[in-house]
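Retry 2 of 3 after timeout on previous attempt. Resubmitting C-alpha cells to design endpoint.
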C-alpha cells in the first residue's frame, strides 16, 4: 500500500490517510482509504477530525426522510463504514412528507396539480407582494426547429445552505425562507417550461420538486452528495445533490446513471446524473448530464480531475449506446452537459471541456458579439468576504450535432439591484441558463 499522508495516525491494518480531500469545509478533512476483500476493490470512508473525534452531524427537521437519517447515522458512526459506491442507486423512501402547499390529499395518497397554468397562478398569488421579476428575453440565433429542445441549467441554492452557511449578508432572512423561495423556484421553471431541467443544490427533491414536476409530466433522477454540507445545519432537509428532469412527452428514457466523481481514482464528494434519452419525434438519442464540481479557490486541480472523470464516463456511455468502437472520440450521440462548475473560463477544467475530442462548446458564448466570450456573470452575491460577480455555470453541447437556436439573456446590474442575489425577486445566488437546441442533420 502507498502511504500518502505525512501525518502520524494510528489506523487499522490495510488503511491509509489522505488529508485535504473535499468534504467538510469547517474542519480538517481526512479520507480513510482501504481495500475490500481480496484487495481488488477500492473504497473509502471520510472523517472530519476534531479533537481526535469524528464530526457529529446535525439532526434534521421534520421533512427529513428515513434514507437521510440512515445516511446521517452512518457518516457520524465511529465504525469505518464505506461510503456509497461510484454508481449510487438511491430510491425514494416510503415516509416522504410531501409539501402540503402543492400536494393535496383526496381520499388517498396526496395528489399534486397537473395543470401548469394553475400552478403558475398559485405561485403568482403567493408572491403578489414581491418586486417584479427580472425582464429577461430570448436572443434568437436561427430560425431553427419549430419545436426546439429547451434546456434549463440552474443552481437553485440549497435551502439549508442559504439559511445556514452561505452568509448572504445583504439578503433579508425573510427572502431566504423556503415558504417563499419554493414559489420563486417553481415560477422560474414554469415560466420557461424546459424539456430538460438540470438542477444543483437540490435539498427538497422528494417532498417538493419531484412530486410537483412529475405531476406536470416530467420524469427525473436525483443523486445526493455523499457528505453534503447541508447535514451541518440544524433542522436540515437532508443532503443536497444534483437532479435531472425531462419531459416524458418529448423523450423516452433509455438509461440513467448516478456517478460519484473521482480524482486520481479516489472518490470525491461531487456527483453527476447522466441520462441517455431518445427523442420521440426524431428517434435520435441524446446524452444529458448534470453536475456540480468542487467549490472554492485552491481546488482548481480537483475540479479539473472531476471534469475529466465525467467526460470519461460520458464517452463510455455514448459508445455503449451507439455501438462505436472503444476509444472512438466522436460517437454519433450528441451531448448536453449542464452544471455549476465553480470554475471561471480561465480554469483548466474549462479548457478540458472546450478542447475535448467530444467536440463540445458553451451555449452562452452565443450571447457575445464575437460568439467566443462567456457572459460577465452567472452568479452575483455579497458575502462577509466581499462581493463576487463571475461566471461559473455552463451549458455544454455537441457543436457538430446540435444547433443553438436561442439563448435567454442575463438581467442587468440595475435589474439585479445593489443587494445582488439572492433577493425577494430571485431565489438563488445563481441565475438560470436557458437555451433552445435542435438536432443538426446527420452527415
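Retry 2 succeeded. Sequence:
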Amino acid at each position: 500500500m502507498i502511504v500518502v499522508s505525512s501525518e502520524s495516525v494510528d489506523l487499522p491494518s490495510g488503511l491509509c490517510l489522505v488529508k485535504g480531500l473535499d468534504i467538510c469545509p469547517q474542519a480538517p478533512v481526512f479520507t480513510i482509504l482501504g481495500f475490500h476483500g481480496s484487495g481488488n476493490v477500492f473504497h473509502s470512508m471520510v472523517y472530519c477530525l476534531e479533537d481526535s473525534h469524528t464530526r457529529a452531524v446535525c439532526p434534521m427537521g421534520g421533512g427529513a426522510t428515513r434514507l437521510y437519517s440512515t445516511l446521517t447515522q452512518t457518516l457520524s458512526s465511529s465504525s469505518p463504514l464505506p461510503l456509497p459506491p461510484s454508481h449510487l442507486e438511491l430510491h425514494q423512501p416510503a415516509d416522504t412528507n410531501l409539501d402540503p402547499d402543492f400536494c393535496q390529499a383526496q381520499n388517498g395518497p396526496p395528489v399534486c396539480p397537473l395543470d401548469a397554468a394553475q400552478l403558475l397562478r398559485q405561485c403568482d398569488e403567493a408572491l403578489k407582494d414581491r418586486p417584479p421579476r427580472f425582464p429577461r428575453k430570448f436572443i434568437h440565433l436561427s430560425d431553427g426547429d419549430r419545436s426546439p429542445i429547451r434546456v434549463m441549467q440552474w443552481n437553485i441554492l440549497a435551502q439549508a445552505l442559504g439559511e445556514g452557511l452561505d452568509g448572504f449578508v445583504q439578503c433579508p432572512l425573510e427572502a431566504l425562507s423556503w415558504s417563499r423561495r419554493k414559489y420563486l423556484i417553481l415560477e422560474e421553471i414554469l415560466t420557461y417550461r424546459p424539456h430538460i431541467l438540470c438542477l444543483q443544490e437540490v435539498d427538497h427533491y422528494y417532498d417538493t420538486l419531484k412530486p410537483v414536476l412529475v405531476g406536470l409530466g416530467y420524469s427525473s433522477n436525483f443523486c445526493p452528495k455523499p457528505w453534503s454540507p447541508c447535514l451541518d445545519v440544524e433542522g436540515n432537509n437532508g443532503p443536497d445533490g444534483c437532479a435531472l428532469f425531462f419531459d416524458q412527452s418529448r423523450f423516452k428514457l433509455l438509461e440513467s446513471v448516478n456517478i460519484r466523481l473521482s480524482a486520481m481514482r479516489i472518490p470525491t464528494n461531487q456527483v453527476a446524473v447522466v441520462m441517455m434519452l431518445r427523442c420521440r419525434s426524431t428517434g435520435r438519442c441524446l446524452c444529458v448530464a448534470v453536475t456540480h464540481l468542487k467549490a472554492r479557490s485552491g481546488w482548481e486541480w480537483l475540479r479539473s480531475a472531476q471534469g475529466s472523470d465525467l467526460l470519461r464516463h460520458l464517452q463510455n456511455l455514448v459508445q455503449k449506446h451507439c455501438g462505436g468502437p472503444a476509444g472512438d472520440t466522436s460517437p454519433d450521440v450528441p451531448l448536453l452537459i449542464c452544471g455549476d462548475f465553480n470554475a471561471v473560463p480561465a480554469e483548466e477544467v474549462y479548457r478540458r471541456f472546450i478542447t475535448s475530442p467530444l467536440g463540445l462548446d458553451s451555449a452562452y458564448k452565443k450571447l457575445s458579439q464575437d460568439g467566443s466570450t462567456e457572459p460577465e456573470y452567472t452568479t452575483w452575491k455579497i458575502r462577509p468576504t466581499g462581493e463576487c460577480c463571475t461566471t461559473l455555470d455552463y451549458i455544454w453541447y455537441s457543436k457538430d450535432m446540435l444547433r443553438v437556436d436561442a439563448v435567454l439573456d442575463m438581467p442587468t446590474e440595475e435589474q439585479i439591484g445593489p443587494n445582488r442575489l439572492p433577493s425577494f425577486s430571485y431565489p438563488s445566488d445563481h441565475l438560470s441558463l436557458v437555451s433552445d437546441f435542435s438536432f443538426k442533420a446527420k452527415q
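Attempt log closed. The chain has eight helices and 21 strands.
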